[in-house]
Amino acid sequence: MLKADASPQDGPHATHIVRGACPTTWHPMEAGDGWLVRVRPPQGRLRAAQAAALCEAAQRFGNGLLDLTNRAALQIRGVAEANCPALRDRLIADGLAEADPDREARLNLVLTPDWHSGDDSDRLAHELRRRIGELPPLPAKIGFAIDAGPAPALTDCPADFRIERSEGDMLIARPDGRSQGLPARPETAIDTLIVLARWFVKTGGRDAGRVGRHTASLPATLARIAPLPPRSRAETLRDAPGPFAGVPFGRIEAGALAGLLERSGATALRLTPWRGLIAEGATADGLAGWIGDPADPRLHVDACAGAPACPQASVETRALALRLAPHVEGSLHVSGCGKGCARPGPADTVLTGREGHFDLARTARAGAPPERRGLAPADLLSLFGAA
Ligand code: SF4
């Protein structure tokens, strides 16, 4: 199991992030509410029976809470250490985890959520799964975005190597952080991705840890092209095989997800990196209580677990964040303390808890010098017109 030594989205007392590694079913990660088991189903999709089994497993082995991550994985929370092996066996038997721990660790893939059976994204993701052993050893957190729809949809989703669409129906294999990558055809895209991975290792990329931090130039002998401009989430979801069902903060109760499966008639669920699922074949009226619009401000606000879940917090965070979200212009981060676990970067408006009240700063990280101090939740609701 992974040794916990740093803090994640929900904070050091809600989850512990391990430097240089990602939790998997083989290597759970310790968190304040138990062990955390990350599930990355093949193609980011669970058939209805697999999803129901996962809900049952989350309730039986964990505390019944799931997190949908910004890399479109599901985390089962609150697992007792003694239950981790049984949970892993169950996930492997259900086709939701790999029987080989090395494969499990390397298969860090996210697909554009609107892939269709047999299209380039579907086919290339299968091919990469099959050929993952041909890649050189890469740092533990390296991930892949298979984003070969009509235009990129995953530009804002963390990934190190990307396959995207370019002009003239060409594909491109692009290292994260570069405006251009290597041209490819559908038949050669995985070969080109392997070339890129070898270039990364050969030029010392393992020391950088992540592709976006690696500054070596791409081989001058190889042609380079740029991807097409990205699609919006709404455009991408229009082509998806079912309605979108979003949840604030990506937090899902397993019982609620089981209820969605029963009521909506969904035949499968697809995981998106956008704090929501796609319920294949579902009727929209079976998704009552879920957020259907990916642009809904409640899906874009960041807030850590806050009080009472985190002992370092003196304020409740998430309920206030949801009240304020529709009324605050730009990005909003509500943090239980100056640590800022939910959003390491700056937000347009940041509220940091301190001694039972909030400090307000603009274009800042949590804990930054505030423009106003000591505000109560009622003051903030009134200030932003949400009272
Ligand atoms: S209260 Fe502080 S330490 Fe706790 S989760 Fe929030 S930001 Fe992290």
- How many strands, what sense, and barrel or not for the largest sheet? 5 strands, antiparallel
Helix content: 10-25%
Count of individual beta strands: 19
Give the distance, in angstroms, between the N- and C-terminal Cα atoms: 46 Å
Using the 3D structure, state the CATH architecture of the largest domain: Alpha-Beta Complex
Q: Please trace the helix and strand order, writing H or E for each element.
A: EEEHEEHHEHEEEEHHHEEHEEEHEEEEH
Indicate the mean pLDDT. Answer: 93
In DSSP terms, counting alpha (H) and pi (I) runs of 4 or more, how many helices? 10
What binds here, in terms of ligands, is: iron/sulfur cluster
**Outline, from the CA principal axes?**
globular
Uncertain runs are: 3-19
CATH topology assignment of the largest domain = Sulfite Reductase Hemoprotein, domain 2
- In total, the number of domains comes to 3
Q: What would you give as the CATH superfamily of the largest domain? A: Sulfite Reductase Hemoprotein,Domain 2
CATH class type of the largest domain: Alpha Beta
User: In what order do the strands lie side by side in the largest sheet?
Assistant: 1-2-5-4-12
Structural class: alpha+beta
